[in-house]
Amino acid sequence: MRNWWILIKERFSPVSYVPMILLFTGANGLYMSKSLAMEFSWQRYALVLLLMLSFFFRMRCFDEIKDYEVDLKINPTRPLARGVLSVPQVKKGLIVMILFEMILSATMGIWPFVVHTIAIFYSLLMYEEFFIGDLLRPYLTTYAVSHTFVSVLLGASSAVAMTNLSPDKITNTQILFFLMNWAFFNLFEFARKTFALSEERPKVASYSNIFTPRGAWFLSWSQVVAGVVLVHYSLIDQQRFSWIFAGAVVYTLISLVYAVRPKAETARIFRNLTGIYLLAHYILVCLAIGA
Asked: For 130, left (φ over 0), alpha (ψ -120 to 50), or beta?
C-alpha cells in the first residue's frame, strides 16, 4: 500500500485531480437531477464519486504502463521506471479496480451498471490504443481527442448513476451537455502540452511544436468556444449562462498573453491558468444549474 501511495502521490496527486473529479461528477449528476426535477442526493453522489475516482485513477495507471518503456529512457525517476511498483503489480490492481467499479455501479441499478460498463469497455480500447496505435501515435491531436471522448461516457455514467435513468430516455439536449465535457477535456490535454520554445524537449511531441505556440493557443481556445456553445444550448435556465460566458471571456483575455508573447513564463501562466479555469468553469456550471 505504501508503494501504491507513492504512485498516487507522484502521478495522481489528490490536490490536483480530486477537486476536478469532485466538480466533474457534481456538475453532470446535478445537471441530470435538475433536468428530471429530482432532488440531488448527497449520499448517492458519494458513491458516484468513488466510481469516478477509481475510473480516473485507473486511466492514469493505463498511461503509466503504456509509457513504461519510454519512461525507462526519458523519465527514469517515475514510479514504475524506478521500480516502486512493477507492471504486473499495476495490472493486478487494474483488475481489482474494474471489478470494484462494476460491483459498485451494479449496486446503484441496472442502468448505471450498463452505462458504466460501456465506459469501462471504451477505456480498455483506449489502453489498447484501439488496436491501431502505430497509426494513431504520430497524430497527436487525433490521438488525444479519441481518448478524451471517454469524458462524454463518464459524464453520462455520472448522470445515470445519480438518477438511475434509462439511457433511451436521454434527450438530445442532455447529450449536448455531455459533449461539453469532451471540449473541456480537450482543452486540458491541449494546454498541458503547450510550451515555449525554450521548454520543448527533443523527441517529445507537443502542440506548440506541431502548430507553433499561437496555433496551439488557438487550438486550446477553440475548445473553450465549443464547450461554452454546448453549455448554452443545454442549460435549462439561460439567464445564468452569462456567468459561464464571463468566465470564458476572462480566461481568453488572460491567456492571450501567451499567444502574443510565447515565452517560458507566459507558457507556464497559460498552463496554470487553464487548470484554474477548468475548475472555475465546472463551479460556474454547478452554480448555473443549481442556484
From this structure: left
**d(C-alpha 235, C-alpha 35), whole Å:** 9
Domain boundaries, the chain: 1-168, 171-291
Mean pLDDT in order along the chain per 10 residues (291 residues): 95 95 98 95 97 98 94 92 96 98 98 98 97 94 98 98 97 98 98 96 92 98 98 86 96 98 97 98 95 60
Answer left, alpha or beta for residue 59, where phi above 0 means left and psi between -120 and 50 means alpha: alpha
Three-class secondary structure assignment of 232-291 = HHHCCCHHHHHHHHHHHHHHHHHHHHHHHCCCHHHHHHHHHHHHHHHHHHHHHHHHHHHC
CA angle 177-155-108, nearest 5°? 130
pLDDT, residue 291, reads: 60
Q: pTM, whole model, 2 decimals?
A: 0.95
CA-wise closest residue to 226 among 258, 284, 184, 280:
184
User: What CA–CA distance (Å, rounded) separates 4 from 12?
Assistant: 11
Q: Is residue 84 helix, strand or coil?
A: coil
Contact between 217 and 188 under an 8 Å Cβ cutoff? The reply is no
pLDDT at 262: 97
**Cβ-contact 252, 221 below 8 angstroms:** yes
Name the superfamily (CATH) of residues 1-168. UbiA prenyltransferase (1.10.357.140)
